[in-house]
Design brief:
The complex is a heterodimer of chains A (181) and B (196).
Chain A (H helix, E strand, L loop, with lengths): L1 H15 L3 H21 L4 H17 L11 H20 L18 H6 L2 H9 L3 H12 L4 H8 L3 H23 L1
Helix pairs in contact in A: 1-2, 2-3, 2-4, 3-4, 7-9, 8-9
Chain B lengths: L5 H11 L7 H15 L18 H32 L1 H7 L2 H4 L3 H11 L6 H14 L4 H17 L6 H8 L25
The chains are: A mainly alpha (181), B mainly alpha (196).
């Protein structure tokens, strides 16, 4: 574990010195991590590849701004990839400010259905959500952000974030109920 | 509303385990290309090295086209006067019957004339027989002799080392005179002998 940390430090120092080999090593080390994040915000693998490539260019261009005292390199890279994923979704849609929602009845979904499904099957359903609703659902359900944080990131109100989550839940309930048949 | 439902947590954990597509090399190539533009490195071992040309390139193709055009133009221009000489002087080749003259233009005619002149003839003397061959194309050997004599005389006047004998010899192989000198047609008449 210590050796891995030392290795990451070397990659980081090399990347700070703009050494291509160190940058490549850093990219390859974090590729799987970044791609798994990018896939949640994309419609297909090509979209995810776009997100990852843009994110790593930003990472290397702004690597001097990384401060290890404020957080881990993992967290910093994740933040950049998520932002890139959200920018990607924003480029496909416009987040509406006209909808507000404070309370909504929670839909009932049978957990056993989800447990039986594979990750790709679930992702196929999530991808069918409208882009803005997709982004809010992933940020909330997968990344663990709350509505205030989502509202800040997407520059929408908390009520709008809640409305998108409610829409996502309704759609997923319908889809999962159909599968349950 | 702010609490994650159990099925959402399930979906979240499932989506963490999505299979990762093997696109590492392709994505790195894109990242590297962008970095080479945005953050060019000064390290000679890594990136930004001048790539050796894989093919001739546009400059190479352009140069080769120009070279081919120049060579072909040179060849065409070189061959053009030779063709003209061959077509305009067919009589010369027929009358002289000299293999050196038959298939040649100006440089070969020079060779044939040097053969006909004295071996010690210099470049000035070589020009005189060339005139003889030109006049021979008219087909009149006598005229050739006269001309050659005249020209030889004029050359001699100009201190050229060409003797009339040499000039006459040079025309000798071109055409032989008919019969013996001093005989005419009446000498060949067959007259029955009268018995004494």
């Amino acid at each position: 574990m210590l050796a891995v940390e030392e290795n990451i430090q070397e990659m980081l120092q090399g990347s700070l010195a703009n050494k291509r080999k160190a940058q490549e090593a850093l990219f390859r080390h974090f590729y799987g991590f970044a791609m798994s994040i990018a896939l949640r915000y994309s419609r297909d693998e090509m979209d995810a590849a776009d997100i990852v490539s843009h994110a790593f260019v930003k990472i290397f261009k702004s690597i001097h701004s990384f401060d290890s005292s404020k957080g881990s390199l993992h967290a910093w890279i994740k933040k950049i990839v998520v932002n890139e994923g959200l920018d990607h979704i924003k480029s496909r849609t416009r987040f509406s400010e006209n909808v507000e929602l404070e309370t909504v009845p929670e839909p009932h979904v049978n957990n056993s259905i989800i447990e039986q499904m594979g990750a790709e099957e679930i992702m196929e359903i999530v991808k069918k959500l409208p882009p803005a609703t997709h982004a809010v659902f992933v940020l909330y359900a997968v990344e663990g952000y709350n509505h205030r944080e989502i509202a800040e990131r997407l520059k929408i109100s908390e009520g709008t974030s809640k409305w998108h989550l409610s829409e996502a839940r309704k759609y997923l309930q319908e889809q999962l109920t159909q599968i349950n048949g | 509303m702010d609490e994650r439902l159990q099925y959402e947590q399930l979906i979240g954990s499932k989506l963490q385990g999505l299979p990762i597509p093997d696109m590492q090399d392709a994505i790195w190539a894109r990242v590297k290309a962008q970095l080479d533009i945005d953050l060019p490195t000064s390290d000679p071992d890594e990136g930004n090295l001048p790539q050796p040309p894989k093919g001739p390139g546009s400059i190479g193709w352009g140069l080769s086209v120009v070279i081919i055009a120049l060579v072909s133009t040179f060849l065409i221009l070189k061959n053009k006067p030779r063709v003209k000489d061959d077509t305009s002087n067919p009589a010369t080749t027929e009358q002289t019957n000299s293999p050196a003259v038959q298939n040649t233009g100006p440089p070969d005619s020079k060779q044939s004339t040097t053969r006909k002149t004295a071996p010690s003839a210099d470049s000035n003397s070589a020009s005189a027989p060339a005139f003889v061959i030109d006049s021979a194309t008219k087909g009149d050997v006598t005229a050739i002799d006269n001309l050659s004599m005249d020209s030889a005389k004029s050359k001699t006047e100009n201190n050229l080392q060409i003797t009339p004998a040499e000039m006459r010899d040079s025309t000798a192989p071109l055409k032989k005179g008919k019969g013996m000198k001093g005989l005419n047609d009446s000498d060949y008449r067959i007259v029955p002998k009268t018995k004494n």
